[in-house]
Input
Amino acid sequence: MKEGIIKEIVNRYNNDDGMLIPMLQDIQAEYGYLPPEQLRVLSKTLDIPLMRIYSISTFYASFRHAPKGQHDITLCMGTVCYLKGSKQISDMICEEYNIEPGNTTSDRLFTLNAVNCVGACAVAPVMIVDRKYYGNMTPESALEIIHKLNLTIEAGDAGKSQKSQ
Amino acid sequence: MKRTNIDESILSPHISSPAELEVLSEKIRKLKAPSTKTVRVCGGPGCTAKGSLEIYALFIKAAEKLPEDIKIDNKCVGCHGLCERGPIVIIGSGDANGEIFYQQVEEPDVAEIFRETVLGGRIVERLLYEDSTTGKKVKSSEEIPFYKTQERIALTQNGIIDPTSINDYIAVGGYSALVKALTTMNPEDIIDEVIKSELRGRGGGGFPTGRKWRSCRDAEGDQKYVICNGDEGDPGAFMDRAVMEGNPHSIIEGMVIGAYAIGASQGFIYVRNEYPLSVERLGAAIEQARETGFLGRNIMESSFSFDIRINRGGGAFVCGESTALMASLEGRVGEPRAKYVHTVEHGLHDQPTNLNNVETWANIPSIINKGGEWFSSIGTEGSKGTKVFCLVGKIKNTGLVEIPMGMTLRQIIYDIGGGVKNDKAFKAVQTGGPSGGCIPEQFLDTPVGFDELTRLGSMMGSGGMIVMDEDTCMVNIAKYFLNFLKGESCGKCTPCREGIPQMLHILERITKGEGEDDDLEKLEVLGTLLSEASLCALGKTAANPVLSTIKYFRKEYEEHIYHQRCPAKECRGLFFYEILPEACKGCGICLKNCPVDAISGEKKEPHLIDQEICTKCGICFEKCPFGAIEKV
Output
């Protein structure tokens, strides 16, 4: 665990506890989630109750309290994606990998995030794998992309997503 | 994003007069010889998902191999609008009529476009848009019905300029409104002009922008703030994203003008967490504006100082509400507060704060340049100017459109959108996001405007327009919206926190065929209570999707409740599967896949589903390769 990183982040925002949300975003960018021990350090550094930090980190949906998987899969559940079958895609992925939206697979291969709208409604349903957008998904094509993640990991090439379109 | 050939190192920092801006603008334009070809690849979210960034990279690579004297201006531009036909590539050659619009371009096409059109000046026929009614291929975007009736103000430069270059923006007249405002107008003049334009807030509320500015200017406070609300949370809406990523400088220019008029020295742009590219583009644009002297201390060498900071949202829908957004900016949970204390007097950090939506800010430069009267000459009595809509759902031409207020829903959906996809029957159009309503066919001739849509039990909202066809169950869609809002209710006030789950519970029963006689009455009572007793707009409008669907599609609810049937055949268990004997080939796939052995039949003979055993799981429907299984 890197010492002093919290101090550095707090300094970035001039010790201003009004900037708590950007600070937490920076911590999450560093670790991929919000490690409890770092939040305790943050609470001490800013001299604010730990409860206040948790009230914020649990209110906003983008904060995570558990480590992420190696890949990030974001499935859009916005109205248009829903109309065009994103629920079926989500159900299929959850069934295949035995997870719930928001969870990480037990082998930490990927984290499945279900979000409200990614603003790419024209190509709904949309799935984003490690920041790459895939449009017009079906349960089958979505699974096909995820299965490829499996292969890249096994080939020792984690972190890269495959282009499929 | 890298560009080729055109020299980028001509920024002359610190513009301080209209003349200096004109000189710079001229200089940038001159750099491009009339013979310079431009290649504009759409980098909007739709086209990007279809691989436009790879196409852009190929164009850059192709241009690199050319001899030095041939100049090509490659640009990755903001959303063009016609996302359905993406990736879109437009080849221009200096004069306007030489523009060629290519659609559905794929990587292997790049070499041909480059050789034939860019270098040879010839057209690649097969990549042109084909007008589906006339069957004629058309060359430029103006000839495409989708674009013909649109009128662009907020999106004027979207798709034309490179969003990462302030020079490109200046070359098309960017920042001239700011220079005009700062050198020839006093703050009162500016506010008068905005009032004259009758511009109303584009985020959904529809409050007159000029009046808001005046109240904020008149409010007492040592420090005033302006905020740009880029927390575009409505699912099915990406207008603000398109502007933030396609023309970030227009927002910044609008904000600086607003801050000068109001007397604010600090601005904030609150961007949704799901839009990382917007944050990147706005960040770069702010940096460039500072270098050129349009942001920071002593803007254009005047006594006016103003700077902008970007804050990323935390992924909470309610933060689109102004007071919740301000709470979030203060580092607190995004809970709204009662609105009887106006934010223009006591907003962020208890100081006078003026908050406007992305599209509202992006309209300001045009209003200053062309005058409030010009703006108010467009539109209807109560709604002036244009509005950007996201036309999505079960429609042929999905995409981003900007139309003058007062155009009818029918014109938007049929003339621009091309009608319902797969020639299915139109059922409803949903406007206003999760808190909006569903508008049925009989009101399609309603002109679009703030008051007109509210009268129909829906609202303008931020501009999502979701088309639904006969296969969409209205009870199910109301359930979807309530489920969404249940998750996004901040929990502060009881009507919203408890009311939404109650209504959702009833809807869940109905879609399972367990509806009760007085369910509709209960929903209406709860809905009215929510709209009267909730603290903020989220709760006040949460019942809209339910109330509007009950109002216009009552029969569909009654079918679910009294006959346990889903007319749209979407609610599982409320319809049957049957095998069409004439289409069934007797292949046995359904029989093999049925988990409860409800299907019987000899090979090569039509099969049969035993309705007594069938659990209506739908596996046979999905597996049948001949489409021989029907929902009845």
